Amino acid sequence: MVLKKDFSSVCTDFINDAKLTDIVANTKEDIKHVRDVIAKSMEKQPLSVEETAVLLAADDPDVVEEIFNAARDLKKSVYGNRIVIFAPLYIGNHCINDCAYCAFRKTLRSTVRKTLTDTEIKAEISALEDVGHKRLILVFGEHPKYNAEFIAKTVRDVYSVKKGHGEIRRVNINAAPMSRDDFKIVKESGIGTYQIFQETYHHGAYRKMHPENTCKGDYLYRLDGLSRAFEAGCDDVGIGTLFGLHDWKFEVLAMIKHSLFLQDRFGVGPHTISFPRLQPAHGVEIDDKYLVNDFDFKRLVAILRLSVPYTGMILTARESPEIRKEIMSFGVSQIDAGTRIELGGYSNSDEKQKMKEQFCLGDTRSMDEIVLELLQDEYIPSFCTSCYRVGRTGERFMEFAIPGFIEKFCTPNALVTLEEYLVDYASKQTKEAGNKLIESELAKISDTKMKKEIINRLNRITKKDERDLYF
Ligand code: SAM
Ligand code: SF4
Question: Which one of 78, 280, 305, 411 counts the least CB within 10 Å of its CB?
């Protein structure tokens, strides 16, 4: 029997390869036009595909520098200096798909397959809590055993592990797309964001990477995945492209298209955009034709920042510390820290770990090292998980769209959760740097009532040993 697949009521293939390719090829460099488009983004207006193409067409180094500066200014003036910290947790690497770029693909026999047991999950969560994590993204291969019930149970198990002051307060998911009924089951377990990367939006490249006879081989089913998630009640979704599989300019335009599509159909765009770059992995040999160099990577992040307002941008530890430091200023809002991607890697690491890894990491620094560097660069590392816990999600609550939202909720929550981190987990040096930063951030707050309340909560953390005092 062939099972009928579930598609959303708005399902349509909104990616036209020929049209997007044509826009990339035929949009000519035009400095005046670039400046007009930048001015529009500075007003926090979403850019169209054609306007984004104007930014992509800018090749002159001086004009590209203007784009970089604009992204930096926008980040500073609109999005502020908070960086939210999370960690990925790989739950299982069994997979029925055969994605050419991934070390978990089914035909790669040398990969050591594993699904964490309940006890191992608890050990991983304890280890993550021990270094101060509050927010995780659970990552799964695609396999019948990782069905909606399994994912939901895993989420509940993760929330149940408490160690000292440690607890996980927000669990996001990166897993295969599912039916609306299954999304509902996962949603009910209390997830934050459901993330699905299209990998490449180009139909031809997609077919090359994902054999037709596999689940993931169905381009439209995947493209429609987040629309089904919306219809199942998940109003917090993340899109992404694996850069390196097709022309990066095409992929940027396609992501803009996806974002505008969701905004149009559901009244709210994606909560986050991810832009992983293809990394070397054992058993993976991919043509290097479309690999994105560091300069173009910076361009694409800056252009995404200018094109999609109100959307969080995630930069992962696939990238080196140096690249992360530089790209951060272009509008990144979330990074992972202390990351391990081998199965069971947070609580122990064994010599076979490389065979359980999906790809090679660029940034293997500890949480404390990363938090310290953020503080030294005058970012506020934030462990805030408040919004989705109090129901501030979806179109009614877009932190960047609502005047005063950041001052009222985000900065105060960043400061109190940073204080928790400093008291419970930080090294001496990080504690000193953190306290200094909190002082200087408090000095910037002009609303005296709010400032008093933040100081009150900081004192309740340090003097009364209270926790989780969110706004
Ligand atoms: N299996 C699910 C799927 O494919 O959607 C979810 C988890 S998959 C483990 C998470 C993401 O890792 C993929 O969406 C892909 O973008 C990324 N990935 C796979 N191989 C990679 C590689 N060699 N370098 C960088 N990222 C990679
Ligand atoms: Fe499986 Fe996801 Fe890797 Fe593809 S990317 S082989 S679906 S784990």
Answer: 280
